[in-house]
Amino acid sequence: MPPRSADGQRAGRAFLERLKERTRNRDKDISLPSFRAQLKAIKRWGRQTPSDLSVIRRPVLVANGEDDRMVPSQNSLDLAARLPQGQLVPLYPDAGHGGIFQYHKEFVTRALEFLES
User: Fold this and answer.
1) Which residues pair with 44 in a beta bridge?
2) Which residues does the UniProt record annotate as the domain AB hydrolase-1 (predicted)?
3) 38-81 pLDDT per residue, tens
4) Which helix (H) or strand (E) holds 87?
5) Under a CB-based contact definition with an 8 Å cutoff, are residues 62 and 111 in contact?
């Protein structure tokens, strides 16, 4: 299901409401030049030959929504498969790039389990 489903939209709105809970030490808005530089770097990175991830010997937790337009979900599957100790969190349904925020309780539980192991 795409993240534009009723459940996905509801989870997205809930995340936006949670953002309002923190009133101090909030992140500053990104500047337009920084945003452009980030897009340029992503484009350049996306055209590179894939890196040899077999040299990474640490456990890595990989998480994503099932329909991410910014970082295609298939890339997360590939990343987890190419890491010797990659652990893939099942792709969050009805979620895109913000899957870990829409499913924050599930993600935090899984991340804590990962960090404790």
Assistant:
1) none
2) 24-101
3) 999 988 988 888 889 999 999 999 999 998 888 889 989 999 99
4) strand 86-88
5) no
Q: Which two tokens stand for residue 25?
A: 């030490």
Do residues 68 and 97 lie in contact, with contact meaning Cβ atoms separated by under 8 Å?
yes
Q: What are phi and psi of 29, to 5 degrees?
A: -65, 145
User: Read out DSSP for 19-54?
Assistant: HTT--SSPPPPPPHHHHHHHHHHHHHHHTSPPP-GG
Instruction: Evaluate whether 88 touches 115 at the Cβ level (below 8 Å).
Output: no
Under 8 Å between Cβ of 34 and 62: no
d(C-alpha 23, C-alpha 2), whole Å: 32
Token pair of 93 as six digits: 């349904």
* pLDDT reported for residue 3: 54
Predicted structure pTM score = 0.74
Q: From CA 52, how far away is CA 82, in angstroms rounded?
A: 8
Whether 102 contacts 91, CB under 8 Å: no
